[in-house]
Amino acid sequence: MLENTTGKPGPTPGTGKVLRIDHSGTVQEIASGLSLPTAMTFGPDGNLYVSNVGFGPPPVGLGQVVKIEVP
């Protein structure tokens, strides 16, 4: 699960997370400290790729794709 912002009512850079929720409902944090992530997908290499800085105030063009190795 991708969380864009955590702990605040509005968009807050640096608080995004990737979480894994198993069948029993146990939550495991996979990554944290993301800045306004907007999407994620698995690559053919088995790693997770997240679009980081997917939106926000200027300056524009700061977006990036972050590779996350899933344990």
Structural description of this entry:
- With 71 residues, this protein is mainly beta.
- Strands 1-2-3 form a 3-stranded antiparallel β-sheet, with no helix packed on it. A 3-stranded antiparallel β-sheet has the order 4-5-6, with no helix packed on it.
- The protein is flat and about 40 Å long.
In short:
With 71 residues, the chain is mostly beta strands. The chain has strands spanning 2-3, 16-21, 27-34, 39-42, 48-52, 64-68. 11% of the residues are buried.
Provide the fold topology.
Layout: E1 2-3, E2 16-21, E3 27-34, E4 39-42, E5 48-52, E6 64-68
Antiparallel strand pairs: 1-2, 2-3, 4-5, 5-6
Low-confidence stretches: none
What's the arrangement of strands in the largest beta sheet? Answer: 1-2-3
Structural class: mainly beta
How would the global form be characterised? flat
Determine the number of helices (DSSP H or I, runs of at least 4 residues): 0
Give the SSE order as H and E letters.
EEEEEE
Radius of gyration from CA coordinates? 13 Å
Largest sheet: 3 strands, antiparallel
Number of strands: 6
Percentage of residues in DSSP E strands: 35-45%
Q: State the end-to-end CA separation.
A: 15 Å
Q: What percentage of residues falls in helices of 4 or more residues?
A: under 10%
Averaged pLDDT, please?
93
